[in-house]
Design brief:
The protein has helices spanning about 5-20, 30-40, 50-75, 90-105, 115-135. By secondary structure, it is an all-alpha fold. The termini are far apart.
């Protein structure tokens, strides 16, 4: 389940920046075309080629949001049971993390990467590592602890028994 939507991405970073990081290299994608693709309605006069470019950009954004969400789940899975409820108290935090990481991934090809974008993504990765390590705990909508993961840990604990004195 993606933690953010294409519409949330455009609302957070604006249609201009979103179109810039999703640019097709031919200058066809405009903020208006991207918004039309998200809305699923095309203004009069938009050509089939423009629709195809806008839809491809939307598909790329949707795919990147899904990849980022799966990446996040890799960290979150060790700390809590997934999927988390959409009404969870962490929903905004997880959406923010997903948006920042996706923005960094889309910007990394030279179409808008900045030190600030990279720093925000690094901060989010550090936060995910802290969640996975148990230094940060996710909370439910009422402030209660999220159910921990149901994974089984294997290995043998130190029993304290002196096996070397046991006769064979």
């Amino acid at each position: 389940m993606p933690y953010a939507t294409p519409l949330a991405f455009v609302q957070r970073y604006g249609a201009d920046e979103s179109a810039q990081v999703l640019a097709d290299g031919m200058g066809v994608l405009t903020p208006e075309l991207l918004l039309a693709a998200i809305a699923g309605t095309w203004p009069v006069g938009v050509t089939a080629d423009e629709q195809a470019v806008a839809n491809a950009s939307l598909t790329r954004l949707t795919h990147e949001l899904a990849i980022t969400s799966n990446y996040m789940d890799g960290y979150l899975r060790s700390a809590c049971s997934l999927p988390l409820a959409a009404t969870d108290a962490n929903a905004g935090t997880l959406e923010n993390c997903c948006l920042r990481l996706t923005r960094s991934a889309l910007s990394s090809d030279g179409t808008g990467a900045t030190e600030r974008t990279d720093k925000q993504a690094d901060d989010q990765r550090a936060w995910l590592r802290d969640v996975a390590a148990g230094r940060v705990q996710l909370v439910g909508s009422n402030g209660e602890a999220i159910a921990p993961t149901t994974s089984i840990k294997t290995g043998r604990a130190n029993s304290g028994y002196r096996w070397d004195g046991y006769p064979l």
